[in-house]
Amino acid sequence: MAAGLDLLCHKLQAALDNRREEGRLIDPSSAATLAGMTDFGSNDSLSLSSSGVLSEAFLQELEKHPDFTIGSTSSRILGGTKPYLEDIERDLAQFHGAESAMFFGSGYDANIAIWSTIPQPGDYVVYDEYVHASIHDGMRRGRATAVAFKHNDCVSLQDCLKDIQEHNPAISLGTQVVFISLESFYSVDGDMVPVREIVNAVHDALPCGNYVLAIDEAHSNGIVGPNGSGFICHYGLEHEFAIRLQTCGKALGSTGAVLLTNETIKSALLNYARGIIFSTAPSFLTVAAVRAGYNLLVSGEGEKRRCRLQQNLQHFYQILTTSSWWADAKQGGIFSLPAEKTWRLDPFLSPVVALVMQPGKARQLAQILHRAKYWVNPVNFPLVAKDKNRIRIIVHADNTKNEIETIVCLIMEWAREQMRSVDENAACTKL
Which of 264, 297, 330 is a domain's end point? Predict the structure, then answer.
């Protein structure tokens, strides 16, 4: 037994050492370290959690239910579907304009359940190449054929759909289903889906109507739409999307996720999704925190925070892209900003800002910002492609203008130093 464990640990340590040598080791900062930093890294984009307003709303929710029990005590298919769970599912379905809702412990769990269970043999899942890892993991466990199209590219999407129909008579005849999997704001580049264009493209490409549109609103729930009800509600496309996922661990500041769908799909998940059948149902405390967050969304406090977040994002992009060194740094390949061409045109902005840079540079810049007490996250391969390393910055409602201006200044100072190094190296090469 001991020899087997020693051998296993030796192999694992060798893999970890290799990742460390390549600069890709994931080594989370301690809570004590993060506590002393200005937050440009967490998903708490409305600052509900960090400000304490969510804690206060949560305690108020507990006071309304003095006889609550901590645990759900069972799986949902047995005795775990308690009244508080039924109540929040009913209320959130109404809030988001859906027929039915189903609460999950996390967005990851929800995507695994959806994509491993709902698409049937002979169906296709056509997905944006930048969808979340949880969707990929769910599709791998599923029984449908998965095909990617180029990110936010309607022509690529239509080409995929045309090719599928040419090689699959059941699709062209309308007897099998094509699922279209999207996100509202993409966590990779921080850009938004051209949702109306994609809906029209799918409608034109599949005249039999044998498609199901699905969208993950992880980064838009709470931020856009009436009372923060989301991206699809903003565009009035609730009836176009049969599957919507609203996560609660980002703008809402807590945890969990809500699937918006119809009763048939919900019943199918209860019967066939192993993660639901063999897991304990969400507890009262989890659901109470989510309800507290939704109570804040519909309040004046929620509206102020949504407005302030968008103002902060506009300010961040404005001072970054008008910096005197921005054009030179971009042309010199120091970094690029995927949302640069669209941020002035979009009706609202994602809290995610991605600065893509050369291999090895993301971690270097992150370390400089960390030493200055600004928390950002470097994102390296294999989380992104090898040539797409980046700094991922999350702008928050409670970030001040001074904090935003300071972090942009630090970024551009680093870029200036990189440009000087490039110029010096070029001069030495000529000599």
Answer: 297
